Amino acid sequence: MKRAFYVGRFQPFHYGHEKILNTIAEEVDEVVIGIGSAQKSHSTRDPFTAGERVEMVLKSLENFPIRHYIIPLQDVEYNALWVPHVKSMSPKFDVAYSNNPLVIQLFTEAGIEVRRPAMHERSIYSGTAIRKSMIESKNREWTEYVPPTVAEVIDEVGGICRIKRVSGNDE
């Protein structure tokens, strides 16, 4: 049995993440999904809590074809300790999936095989672009880029109001 590890901030979880996870599911038997920067929330870059992001991923993957684990991971401000931290918080895994240069470097140095999944329409499916649309959009265009269950979670937690408030200034 082969188990993979895939980490993202998922701010929010979107169709690009879903596409990568479907690719991973074709290559392994199980996947550990790391919710990165779990301690961050309520900012323009990281508006959602770890629990909200876990819920987004969990609900989006209700019919996912392989067993999956969702693990919130706090940042470690000492990069040389990040992989041991991940390994201590996660079920054992055989391969990591990432396109992040730092993550690739850290796993490679730790002797873990890293696969680079193809990005799915990165210019459209980007957390940065989706958050910008949430802030600027008056008619919910951002919902086109996330699974309906993610939009439901965002609505339930007042996510649009939150991101608009925290992205404002004090003038």
UniProtKB/TrEMBL annotation:
Domain of life (superkingdom): Archaea
UniProt GO BP: NAD+ biosynthetic process
Domain Cytidyltransferase-like, first and last residues per copy: 5-132
Pfam families attached to this UniProt entry: CTP_transf_like (PF01467)
Main subcellular location of this protein, as a coarse class: cytoplasm
Compartment annotation: Cytoplasm
InterPro entries, per the entry: Cyt_trans-like, NMN_Atrans_arc, Rossmann-like_a/b/a_fold
EC number: 2.7.7.1
Keyword set includes Hydrolase: yes
Keyword field: ATP-binding, Cytoplasm, Hydrolase, NAD, Nucleotide-binding, Nucleotidyltransferase, Pyridine nucleotide biosynthesis, Transferase
Pathway assigned in UniProt: Cofactor biosynthesis; NAD(+) biosynthesis; NAD(+) from nicotinamide D-ribonucleotide: step 1/1
Similarity annotation: Belongs to the archaeal NMN adenylyltransferase family.
HAMAP family: NMN_adenylyltr (MF_00243)
Protein name (database record): Nicotinamide-nucleotide adenylyltransferase
Native source species: Methanimicrococcus stummii
Organismal lineage: Archaea, Methanobacteriati, Methanobacteriota, Stenosarchaea group, Methanomicrobia
